[in-house]
Amino acid sequence: MTRSSHRDRPQWRERRGSALFLVMIMSAALAGLALSAIYLGSHATLVTKAFDREREYRYAAEAALAMGRAQLGQDASLVLDDSVPTQLLRQQPIMGADGRPVPGVLLNMWVARTGSKTGEHGLYASIIAEARDSSGGGAKFVRRLELMEENFARFLDWSNDWARNGCYGTGEIMDGPVFSNASIGVCGGWFKDSVASASTIGDRGTFDKGQQEYQRRIEMPSLARLERLRGYATSGNYYIDAPTNGDATTARLRIEFVWWDLDGDGTAVGDPQEGFFRVYTNQNANRIRADYRSNSDDYIKDNQCGDWHYMDGKLQFFPVSVHDESWFRDAMLAPPNRNDNRNLLPGYADWANGPTGEAVILAHASAANRAAIMRGGRPTTAPGRKMAGALYPRCFPAGDPHLAPTERSSSGGTWTNADLERGGDSASFTPSSPASVANGNWLPWTGPAVDWSRFPAAYRPPANMRPYLWPIDRELNPSTKGVIYVNGTVAVSGVLNGRITLYSNASITFVDDLTYATDPSSPDCDDMLGLIAAQEITIADNGINTAQDPVNGGDPGDTWMDDDMHFTLHGVLMALDTFVPERWNAGAVNMSTCNGQNIGRGCIYQVGGAIVNHREVTYDGAHGFMESRTYDKRMSRDSPPYFPTTGRYSDNRFYEVDPQGFEIGAYLNRIGQHGS
């Protein structure tokens, strides 16, 4: 019997519709991909169109800012209102590069003053441009350009016209911006910075940055605009009435800036509370000005001018009238070991080494010998500082504390030796002068009382001087705005520690140097001075600024009665008339040099600028002062408090503004149009 084996075969069943289902799934997926591609492509198109539209709005807004910037810079009739914005464009189309309007875009544009309205730290304006959908939709783009108004202080030299034929001559170096509305005469001057004119510029000079002619005029501020300074000064207790309001020769009030080292560290850096000024008035203008050359008033020559020397181990000042009485012997001994004709007082071993003994006090009445004493000195350093010479001729304006000895000795009163010692930084300060000095008076400070106890006793001013020191810093005078307003003519001098703008609605004259307490070339210097006069600003032709003849009491002179042979000024000045040395074409002849040139009175060493209506000459070759100004680079970005602006603007900052709910009035209120 045969056996056989076999394997069971699988039984296949039919699976109906599976292929169709798979096809449907794949078709749906492909359809979805297609729809996604269509959707994404459509979205990309919409996004692209949206970005294109945004670019159009941005382009329109920025173009509007540029147009507003140009109109503000060129349209002299465009005057910004202090309270409401000025609308320059209202629903206006913007033209594209093809010369046709950009479709669907309309522009609104406003210009308004923004920031602090006071102008203490500069004036600002904003141009606001709104580009929006012309169809009335909500799409828009808002852009703001903030502009800073240019300050007159940025100019080294600015003039409206030239009152006389003159030019920038050989030896005159201008290292800051120069501008004039008139033709600028050049006959050898060197210009290291920009030179621009609303007319023409001479070509006989050196121009490091070229020349710009036929520029838009810049107008000086009006008297009404300057009169706003009165309110700022009054709020800070710095409004001062002067006895006169004529030209500079009539000044019977003077302001002297004072730096007092209250911590004894020898520097004003970081010590703004050490800045003061004091105010003096006198019935006699010649004495306020120390007009030595005036033969009609011998009191100045006899009492306000004299020599410095050591006596009893102290540096003292004795004017000529004291020499007439009992201070010096009539014959002075020649100094040992010297082969010249200079005479010195007995007791001096050498010209530069100070006293080796006490001066012999004997009668001295010879006018010739008095003159020899005056001529025996030489300019070294200012009184009150370290002296290098034994004798030192010096004149002072009336009221100066250094004149206390002669004022007291000539008053007829009874004074002790201590009373008659030198004044200045000592307890011999005299608040009120005797009748013989024309009843001059220092004016007391009437603002908030100064707490002197906060400063070390060893460095405080003398007790009788403190009430007459007017504080400059806000720490001692919280309401100050840094503005002094003088209602009348004023004489000025001294050492400034702080920031001040002094305005006279008449004239200003310099009776002596006016400098900063910190060297203006130092990066630590924060001092800044602005001087503004509604009339003229002059350099007084007096016994301090001009060489005099001590024998004949007049000029041309052969003796300097100041600390050097030049005039030094730190600060920027503005005169709605002119700035000029008095008698610039007369007086001392070639007594000094400036920039290698012989000149009558020396250099005007100024760090700052001069803005004047009428540009005058300052010397005629043999007489007067030659200008040697140095630009204070801080003025390119800063200015003295509330110093006037030119009406020209420069870009400061850009802002992109949230367009949601934008409305111009609400926006200006929010950013503080004339806010604090």
Main beta-sheet strand count, sense and barrel state = 16 strands, mixed
Please identify the structural class as seen in this structure. Answer: alpha/beta
- Could you tell me the radius of gyration in angstroms? 38 Å
Poorly predicted ranges (pLDDT <50, ≥5 residues)? 323-366, 378-390
Report on this model:
Helices cover 16% and strands 30% of the residues. The longest helix is centred in the N-terminal third of the chain and has 57 residues. The strands form 7 sheets. The protein has a 16-stranded mixed sheet that branches. The chain is elongated and about 140 Å long. By secondary structure, it is α/β, with parallel strands linked by helices. Strand 15 and strand 16 form a beta hairpin.
Report a brief summary of the structure.
Helices cover 16% and strands 30% of the residues.
Detail the topology: elements first, then pairings.
Elements: H1 18-74, E1 86-95, E2 101-114, E3 124-133, E4 140-151, E5 157-162, E6 168-169, E7 173-174, E8 178-180, E9 186-191, E10 195-197, E11 204-207, H2 223-226, H3 229-235, E12 239-241, E13 253-259, E14 275-281, H4 285-289, H5 298-304, E15 305-311, E16 314-319, H6 320-325, H7 367-376, E17 392-395, H8 404-409, E18 441-443, E19 470-471, E20 483-487, E21 490-496, E22 499-504, E23 508-516, E24 528-533, E25 537-539, E26 548-549, E27 554-559, E28 567-570, E29 572-581, E30 592-594, E31 597-599, E32 602-607, E33 610-615, E34 625-630, E35 645-657, H9 664-671
Parallel strand pairs: 5-8, 5-33, 6-9, 7-9, 8-10, 9-11, 12-20, 13-21, 20-22, 21-23, 22-24, 23-25, 24-29, 25-29, 28-32, 29-33, 32-34
Antiparallel strand pairs: 1-2, 2-3, 3-4, 4-35, 13-14, 14-18, 14-19, 15-16, 15-17, 26-27, 30-31
